[in-house]
Automatic annotation (TrEMBL), chain A:
Membrane topology, record value: Multi-pass membrane protein
Protein name as catalogued: Phosphate transport system permease protein
Residue span, ABC transmembrane type-1 domain: 89-301
Organism (species): Nostoc sphaeroides CCNUC1
Entry superkingdom: Bacteria
Similarity-based family: Belongs to the binding-protein-dependent transport system permease family. CysTW subfamily.
Pfam name, any one: BPD_transp_1
InterPro entries recorded: MetI-like (IPR000515), MetI-like_sf (IPR035906), Phosphate_PstC (IPR011864)
NCBIfam families registered for this protein in UniProt: phosphate_pstC
GO aspect biological process, one term: phosphate ion transport
Keyword Membrane belongs to the record: yes
Main location: membrane
UniProtKB/TrEMBL annotation, chain B:
Annotated TM spans: 33-58, 79-103, 123-148, 160-179, 209-226, 233-252, 281-302
Name of protein: Phosphate transport system permease protein PstA
Compartments, record wording: Cell membrane
Keyword Transmembrane helix belongs to the record: yes
Membrane topology, from the record: Multi-pass membrane protein
Source organism of this protein record: Nostoc sphaeroides CCNUC1
Length: 313, 310
């Protein structure tokens, strides 16, 4: 080591010698800090679950579970209290089904259009345009549903009321088209060219290639986008609060006012409900129901994607 | 076409699969119908977007003027304005950005650059994917319980700070995911070159990887922030109010004051029975959309300006 030319010039060697001990401890510190940041997401989940469980348990100490599941009315804010969660679930189910009936077919067709039919030049414009639609705040869609779509539908559907599930559901469906289109398009676009060419070589037309080769090959991605869209429809709040009304009632009539799970949470939150009151606990019980439904969908989606994913290298 | 016709009749004689439609004309016609259907679906979505924008503009532009931007809320629709909600939204934006950006980017760097494939990493990954699909109103319930009730000594209850913390948690998964994607796009050869020169991982990230990934990270962050600005439901649950006639102070006490935001004000006006307030709501929507458009065009500008040619 004495032959090292640097050691002959001690004045310069300081410049050359990095402080390895310091940079090593900085490295360790940064790594630990960032691991902590990553852990915040886990803490968030734990926080959500604990929050919901804590208040829900208190709720079920006052209201038995069977009443929660079997009551046919939802009137926790009146003197004659009834807690039939099925009333709110039926409304959520109704609006979600309407929304999904709009969003899944149109979103998938739009994805096929973007991935298979649109020329590259046009695709460059269509994707950002759909992203704009995805970026419109839901409160704006709510305004649109209440003041534009409902009067339009009322002009040819007799007996349709000012607040209703139909127009809220339709607009909700339109609002999640970009989600389905964009995620399904990613899945379709990543199907390798060779598969399409193989189908063409066997004499398929373009439509036959898409339906019997490309779509099955992208199935896991498409299903994942569908499930995300369904949980978005179930958890959507503002469109339904503004345009579907605040009237909890059991049934599947799309022309009358209803109240979804999310709309109920908003209705209670708007008034100043003191912590510890029964009404305060109901929003957590409703939130827990909502969380469990979307969690089930997520777990199913995760399982499905792992089970059916096709990998192309 | 006549040629293909004769071909198909020849084939059908040879007893092919009966499920297979041999008339090539019919198949081509179906193809056309299918192609048209996909175009109709795409243009339908864009048409609704156009109608929505035109509708809001025609309703709201008449009400939009300088005094609408500089007045507080009022019981009379004609003298009400969006000053408090506009300032409230900007406050939320700044605080949310300064909480969620460092957290999200740090977590993204950890997961992409440092983490090995072990149970801890996998737990965090599944967890982030799951959080991204949790309805936003559930985050509102979390914020109500944790930030408004448990942390009341710090946040003073239903305050700007509680709202911003809630929104930060809401967009954290999106920032982490985009950070990871941007880091993944940086070629590995740069990291190897850094190691060859004797740098450690943090030095390589700080000097080489992060500056290259930054435009992508910023684009993703701005897009997620514009989502936060449009969020209504979690803020209502946390306790934003629709009627505020003061501006928050520029101090820590300001963070603890009650607040409103543009979507909250719009929702408040939409829920009132008078038509004049509905017009105010439309004008408020125009203001909100302009804010979002400014943010999104900044994101697109960044993406185009710094995008590396491959």
């Amino acid at each position: 080591m004495t032959s090292n030319p640097l050691s002959n010039k001690p004045s310069n060697s300081k410049l050359w010698q990095p402080n390895r001990a310091l940079s090593k401890s900085v490295e360790t510190g940064v790594k630990a800090l960032f691991a902590l940041f990553a852990f915040v997401s886990v803490v968030t989940t734990i926080g959500i679950v604990l929050t919901l469980i804590f208040e829900t348990v208190e709720f079920f100490q006052e209201v038995p579970l069977w009443r929660f599941l079997t009551d046919t009315q939802w009137t926790p804010l009146f003197t004659n209290q009834q807690f039939g969660i099925m009333v709110l679930i039926s409304a959520t189910l109704l609006t979600s089904v309407i929304a999904i009936a709009v969003a899944l077919p149109l979103g998938l067709l739009a994805a096929i259009c973007l991935s298979e039919y649109a020329p590259a030049e046009l695709r460059k414009w269509l994707k950002p345009a759909l992203e704009v639609l995805a970026g419109v705040p839901t409160v704006v869609f709510g305004y649109f549903a209440l003041f534009t779509v409902t009067p339009f539908l009322q002009s040819f559907i007799p007996g349709m009321q000012g607040f209703n599930a139909l127009s809220a559901g339709l607009v909700l469906g339109v609002s999640i088209i970009p989600l389905v289109a964009s995620l399904s398009e990613d899945a379709l676009y990543s199907v390798p060219r060779s598969l399409r060419e193989g189908a063409y070589a066997l004499g398929s037309t373009k439509r036959e290639t898409i339906i019997s080769v490309v779509l099955p090959a992208a199935l896991s991605g498409i299903v994942a986008s569908f499930i995300l869209a369904i949980s978005r429809a179930i958890g959507e709040t503002m469109i339904l609060t503004i345009a579907a009304g605040q009237n909890p009632q059991l049934g599947f009539n799309p022309l009358v006012p209803i109240q979804t799970m999310t709309a109920y949470i908003v209705q209670v939150s708007k008034g100043d409900t003191p912590a510890g009151s029964l009404a305060y606990k109901t929003i957590f019980a409703v939130g827990m129901t909502l969380f469990l439904i979307t969690l089930t969908l997520n777990v199913f989606s995760y399982w499905f994607v792992r089970r059916f994913r096709e990998k192309y290298e | 076409m006549t040629k293909s016709n004769t071909q198909s009749t020849n084939l059908s004689d040879s007893g092919a699969n009966p499920n297979f439609d041999l008339s090539i004309n019919k198949r081509y016609n179906l193809d056309k119908v299918f192609a048209i259907a996909t175009w109709v679906a795409t243009s339908f979505a864009l048409l609704v977007l156009a109608i929505l924008l035109i509708d809001v503009l025609t309703d709201g532009l008449g009400r939009l003027n300088w005094s609408f931007l500089t007045s507080f809320s009022s019981r009379r629709a004609s003298s009400a304005g969006v000053l408090a909600p506009l300032v409230g939204s900007i406050w939320l934006l700044v605080i949310t950005a300064s909480i969620s950006f460092p957290l999200g980017v740090g977590a993204g760097i950890f997961l992409e650059e440092y983490a090995q494939d072990n149970w801890f990493t996998r737990l965090i990954e599944i967890n982030i994917a799951n959080l991204a699909a949790v309805p936003s109103i559930i985050y509102g319930l979390l914020g109500l319980q944790v930030f408004v009730r448990v942390m009341e000594p710090i946040t003073r209850g239903r305050s700007v700070l509680a709202g911003a913390l809630t929104l930060s948690l809401l967009i954290l998964p999106i920032i982490i995911i985009t950070t990871r994607e941007s880091l993944r796009a940086v070629p590995d050869s740069l990291r190897q070159a850094g190691f060859a020169l004797g740098a450690n991982r943090w030095q390589i990230i700080r000097e080489q990887i992060f500056p290259i990934a930054l435009p992508g990270i910023l684009t993703g962050t701005i897009l997620s922030l514009s989502r936060a600005i449009g969020e209504t439901a979690p803020l209502i649950v946390v306790g934003a109010v629709g009627f505020i006639t003061f501006l928050p102070q520029l101090s820590f006490q300001g963070l603890q004051s009650s607040f409103t935001a543009l979507p909250i004000q719009i929702f408040d006006w939409v829920s009132r029975p008078q038509v004049e307030f509905h017009q105010n709501a439309a004008a408020g929507i125009v203001v909100l959309m302009i804010v979002l458009m400014l943010m999104n065009s900044t994101a697109i500008f960044l993406r185009n300006k710094f995008q590396q040619p491959r």
